Fold these 3 entries.
Entry 1:
Amino acid sequence: MDAALAKAIFFGLVALGAGIAVGAAAIGGGIGFGASARGMLEGLARNPNLENKLRLYFFIGLAFAETAILYGLLIALILLFTGVLSGKAGF
């Protein structure tokens, strides 16, 4: 295997890893959003008087779910733009 082919495979795998990172984070975040919404609606159905308190906890839960998505995006951006694809990573 020559160096050009090895380099092309390496860069392709880096791009694939970035895509998988974003996709997995989005799936996890979607599951978190769904679980938060389900919990809010179940709690609201049981006791409608706690709407304001449940809303606060709902938004906190959404923030935690959103951080997983942002971390996945951050990992993908680090993989793509820290010199790996420009050849500055010692390759």
Note: Residues 43 and 49 are 10 Å apart (CA to CA).
Entry 2:
Amino acid sequence: MSLKTEKTLTKKGLNTRRKLLKAAEKVFGTKGYFEASIVDITQEANVAQGTIYKYFPSKKAIYDELVQQMSRDLRLYIKQAIDKSPLVDVHRRGFEAFFEWVSENRNLYSIVFQAVIVDKDLYRWYYEKLASGYIRVLKEADKTGEFKSLNHEALAYNLMGIGQFIGMRWIYWEGEEVPKEVLDEAMEMVLHGILK
């Protein structure tokens, strides 16, 4: 965690901290964690080099905070998108929300994948937090009897993998939106399987 949390900062301090995180997202996303420097981040944020140390004790600390923030933001975005959706639409709305969020935050893929090397515990935490929300939704869905009763954890990771790689293929690699027909095919497979 950063030295100064959002609760102890002035309005100006909050703005500076957010500016540093936004700059770090761009720098880590384009240069990579190991090639990025504190100087790169402060230059991107247009603040004096020493300013960053008022908010984050190290490059690793700002990276950790960035991954945690992106995780919170993504999970909240998906939660709001699926809230009050009919159960049969929850998976589709969740995928759509994930694709929308990633389109607006393309550096997510690069930053999270780097965590495999930068900090494998952080990488694992990121996906476990995402999975725990999915598992809660799947357990709720189980109560209605609309879907097969399957292992919630296994199903959550399978569904996350589908979203992850579809998003990577079109949004991250190509810089495009996920085509509607691709999402339709994914939903057909998720809801009805691949057997004839």
Note: DSSP finds eight helices and no strands in the chain.
Entry 3:
Amino acid sequence: MASGKAARVQLSDDEVDDILYLTRTNESTELQQYLGQLSQQHNCSIAALLESSVDEDNGNTPFHYCAANGCADLLRTLSSQLDPSTKTEVLSRKNEAGNTALHWASVNGHVEAVKALIDSGVDVWVKNAAGHLPVFEAERAEKDEVVATLLIAGGKEDEEKSRAQEGEATEEEKAEVDVEAATSQMGESSLEK
């Protein structure tokens, strides 16, 4: 399928249930095989299948189940198969209760799933229908490592935004400048020999 936004696919209830079941049970190999079969059957990308796999009863996605069950490796694998232009949006989808995959990973204390979601660019400041942030859910559930991870990620995000607004170089821009400076110094020292 061409790059760009993956088209929604009309999946049967059984197909969605099978995708969600294989995700919940962390059956990575079987899930990948099944997604491959469905991709051929529906003539679509795996990204389109993943974007279309939403439980009609509660709004949960495969990413909610990966996060809730701490399946960080499967979460990374599936998120890598998403269309880059919609990846963050898909990973940030809210279920019927307004919870994102990050809320579920946080409340259940799955720090590696939390890190995978943060690395994929999800918003750590998103609130659920009750008005709770993922960090609040983690703190209430006494998941201290997740709380620390979210606070660090949120702090870095806020610091980067603040620096950008003040016209200061971001950490990424500083790293680029450091590399350029080191490269030019290496060139100068090799000429002096």
Note: The chain has one domain: 13-185.
